[in-house]
Amino acid sequence: MTALVLGPLLRHVADRSATIWVETDRPCEVRVLSAEHGVDAAARTFTAHGHHYALVEIEGLEPGARIPYSVTLDGETVWPEPGSRFPAATIRTMSAAGALRVSFGSCRRSPDRAGLHGLDALSAFAHELAGAGGADWPDVLLMVGDQIYADELGEEMRAYIGERRDPDVPPVGEVADFEEYTHLYKLAWCEDPAVRWLLSTVPTFTIFDDHDVRDDWNTSYAWRKEMWEQPWWRARITGGIGSYWIYQHLGNLSPAERATDPLYAAVRAASAEGADAGKLIDEFAERADKEPASTRWSYAHDWGGTRLIVVDSRCSRLLTADRRGMLDDDEFRWLDEQCHGGMEHLLIASSLPVLLPRTIHHAESWNEAMAAGAWGRRGARLAERLRQFADLEHWAAFDASFRALAEDVVAVARGERGEAPASISFLSGDIHYSYLAKVTAPKTRTTISQVVCSPLRNPLVGTFRRANQIAGSRATAWPFRMLARMAKVPPLPLKWRITEGPWFDNAIATVELSGSQCRVRWETPRSETSLDELGTATVC
């Protein structure tokens, strides 16, 4: 009997369509069924490096529908699992109007027996939803980075690696290739029944951050040169990007967008002929890393009066000996085109916060100027070492990109690109604490804010926590502001301050959009199966 390895995952959903993603243990036909709602959609698997995947596209649904479904593989029912204590998995389409709830978070380490990373906010959230019977569920679950940790492995992953290769051969303590990435995803999304159920019934969208590949991924041109000199890096980067394309990226796209993806067409054609498409995906992944403009990982979707723009701030970086940018030129042109008014709310998701605590922002902009030679060659070498040691590689460390994005957002807020929205919110993770920051100038009717929620399960401890608590203080900003000025960094184009937080607990946040109102709620696990409110705020 054909078995379900991972999934089903409810991925891209619109008002009349939905996508179900699965991994199986052999080639087969995957069918999604709901007899009472007339759903019967099927797809053949494709094969990559001996693994088998399918995306089943379901069309012709009704807006706002709630459709319990089952999954069969070659005619045998494999989902729902017999005896499950969770409600039936349900396809949840978008409503054309009304409130929108977006739950999000980042930085989720795999389970560990010692409980080093605390209670899992995503698992507790799943239990809370299961007990709520569909009331107040999010319309979207957005995972804004570090869905997996390829460079900080738990016990189970280390044991798996020890069974297939010498763990003392580089990369030591990290995954090496596509095969090991597949096991990471299985641990992250399948081992906990609550999380597996959650992903089967809440539409999920994602974007990667550094740990999905490696800590400090694409920090600088020097970092890239150093990594490509490692003999093991090619298998690592192609495995990381190739597995991301399968496990995360394809599900972010609408059926129409997938239909125009040349790699997806080539992979399906190869599998239709009985071939393994692993080589095609490896070649694509290497090209995507070496030539960022060759592919786009960012995407945008409109739901009712809300536009969500999800920005790739990792793989699409412009890093050459002469230029650096958070996004390459083509990617930034795309982002510029997506930033417009005419919507009630604009959400811009970036794994890396755009509006950091001011101390950290000034430190990173100063470091970038130093690394570019503002204080000479010796200062540049020191700055590069500091950049990699202290992870100084957020939007603030790409000053030209930060200013260009700020200019776009202000233009939208001033009504220069269509009717101004009620709110523009950046949704981010990465930094392992949560907060709300609000822009205080320029004055517009649009509220501009930064909402951060991190981590889902990987809290800062000890010295790292204390350092970030100090950095969050307004009193510590001025020395770094002076250093930035001394390095000839121009004055900031925006002013902002943290109005809620920071909180350093494991947490998940929910942004609630209704009419012209925007509210946000952070919750932290009280137990393995329940959440406590960490904080709430009215954005506008």
Could you explain how this protein is built, in words?
The protein has 540 residues and is α+β, with helices and mostly antiparallel strands. The protein is globular and about 70 Å long. The protein has 15 helices and 25 strands. It starts with a strand and ends with a strand. The chain has a domain at 97-143 and 297-540: 2-Layer Sandwich (Transcription Regulator spoIIAA), CATH 3.30.750. The strands form 6 sheets. It has a 7-stranded mixed beta sheet, with no helix packed on it. It has a 6-stranded mixed beta sheet with strand order 13-12-11-23-24-25.
Topology:
Elements: E1 4-13, E2 18-24, E3 29-34, E4 39-44, E5 46-48, E6 51-58, E7 66-68, E8 70-73, E9 76-79, E10 90-92, E11 100-105, H1 121-132, E12 140-143, H2 155-164, H3 178-190, H4 193-201, E13 204-206, H5 221-228, H6 233-252, H7 255-259, H8 262-272, H9 278-290, E14 299-303, E15 306-311, E16 318-319, E17 324-325, H10 329-338, E18 345-350, H11 358-371, H12 376-389, H13 399-413, E19 423-428, E20 434-441, E21 447-452, H14 462-471, H15 477-486, E22 495-503, E23 508-514, E24 517-527, E25 530-538
Parallel strand pairs: 11-12, 12-13, 15-18, 18-19, 19-21
Antiparallel strand pairs: 1-2, 2-6, 3-4, 3-8, 5-6, 7-10, 8-9, 11-23, 14-15, 16-17, 20-21, 20-22, 23-24, 24-25
